[in-house]
TrEMBL record:
Organism lineage: Bacteria, Pseudomonadati, Pseudomonadota, Gammaproteobacteria, Vibrionales
Native organism: Enterovibrio norvegicus DSM 15893
Coiled coil residues, start to end: none
An example Gene Ontology molecular-function term: ATP binding
Cited SMART domains: AAA (SM00382)
Cross-referenced InterPro entries: AAA+_ATPase (IPR003593), ABC_transp_ATP-bind (IPR050319), ABC_transporter-like_ATP-bd (IPR003439), ABC_transporter-like_CS (IPR017871), Oligopep_ABC_C (IPR013563), P-loop_NTPase (IPR027417)
Designated name of the protein: Peptide/nickel transport system ATP-binding protein
Length: 329
């Protein structure tokens, strides 16, 4: 690596290797299992955003829930700042890990308690994680509310969640997440429930936190257009598998996997009318099991051949730092 490459190499904060998550399905005594996440690997770098894009049920939220320790992974390695996640837990560091890896949800109303003021919501993590004392907590709450664009802060702090708009509530959720100086924010569809008119404001706020405060984001979305806007890197998921990943520009401008091509063809463009969506076979989306074989997209893929139903494609580097898993690249 030459000097400039070394300078460009950002510090890896969170590293996921070969992550697998199985869920029991149906009657528990039958031992039926579905594989919601299969062999997923990626790094989150300091101050960088990775967008995880894919349709409903592709395993996006399951990945985030594993990282926040809501679910325990079936297999794989997770390390945070170079240390296995399991070590944080066994060494009484779980609270410290929880402070550094925060989550923002799709529904800001659901994540706020209607009987408490905004002040209460933002003060609580500051006190739990000893980032403020009872004496200076209000000042810190006001600073955070200003930082996320909720001014006048003193007035906002006195309000209850129902007195704010959806976009303002999501700003409160962000203030609460950044109150404890996290290294990583896992944002699970943070703008999809908001009015279109306020979505860009929230994305720009997150971009500021990333660029100016060095926070790494995992940005989960259905919308590959916002992935391109916000995130340096993009990973496309299908039925629990990463089918294509790399620099967002490369993945979105030069998609190689038939599923990524389909997602991009569905993005509306200014000046283009009518449908340009690519064709897709009417096959079912498979229920992936540990015993399943082949490419998960084979049943819907317009270019699938025999091999696709039998062998999982290897990852191929199609351009520098841009990978896809497809037998027909
Ligand atoms: N606790 C659970 N028990 C059983 N199955 C689960 C559980 N959580 C998720 N799943 C299954 O795992 C798969 C992936 O779900 P997940 O919520 O991760 O998808 P997603 O990509 O976040 O979808 P969406 O875009 O709808 O939020 C789905 O088939 C889902 O039904
Ligand atoms: Mg989800």
């Amino acid at each position: 690596m030459d000097d400039s490459a070394a300078m460009n190499k950002k510090e890896t904060i969170l590293s996921i290797k070969n992550l697998v998550m199985d869920f029991a399905i149906g009657h528990s005594s039958k031992g039926n299992v579905m594989r919601a996440v299969n062999d997923v690997s990626f790094d989150l770098n300091k101050g960088e955003a990775l967008a995880i894009v894919g349709e409903s049920g592709s395993g996006k939220s399951t990945g985030a829930r594993i990282l926040t320790r809501i679910y325990k992974e079936t297999a794989g390695k997770i390390s945070f700042k170079g240390k296995p996640l399991a070590d944080y837990v066994s060494e009484n560091g779980a609270l410290e890990y929880a402070r550094q890896v925060q989550m923002i949800f799709q529904d800001p109303f659901g994540s706020l308690n209607p009987v408490h003021t905004i002040h209460h919501h933002v003060a609580r993590p500051l006190l739990i994680h000893k980032r403020a004392t009872k004496r200076d907590v209000s000042q810190k709450v006001y600073e955070l509310l200003e930082l996320v664009g909720l001014s006048p802060a003193v007035e906002t702090a006195q309000k209850y969640p129902h007195e704010l708009s959806g976009g303002q509530r999501q700003r409160v959720a962000i203030a609460r997440a950044i109150a404890v100086d996290p290294e990583v924010i896992l944002a699970d569809e943070p703008i999809s429930m908001l009015d279109v008119s306020v979505r860009l404001g929230i994305l720009n706020l997150m971009a500021d936190l990333k660029d100016k405060h060095g926070i790494a984001f995992m940005y989960i979305t259905h919308d590959i257009a916002t992935a391109r806007y916000f995130a340096e890197k993009t990973a496309v998921m299908y039925v629990g598998h990463m089918v294509e990943w790399g620099h967002s520009d490369s993945v979105t401008q030069n998609p190689q996997h038939p599923y990524s091509k389909l997602l991009l063809s569905a993005v509306p463009e200014v000046g283009r009318r009518g449908k340009r969506e690519l064709s897709v076979k009417k096959g079912d989306i498979p229920l992936w099991k540990p015993s399943s074989v082949g490419c998960p997209y084979a049943s819907r893929c317009p270019v699938a051949t025999e091999v696709c139903t039998q062998e999982m494609p290897e990852a191929t580097e199609v351009q520098a730092g841009h990978f896809a898993r497809c037998h027909h690249l």
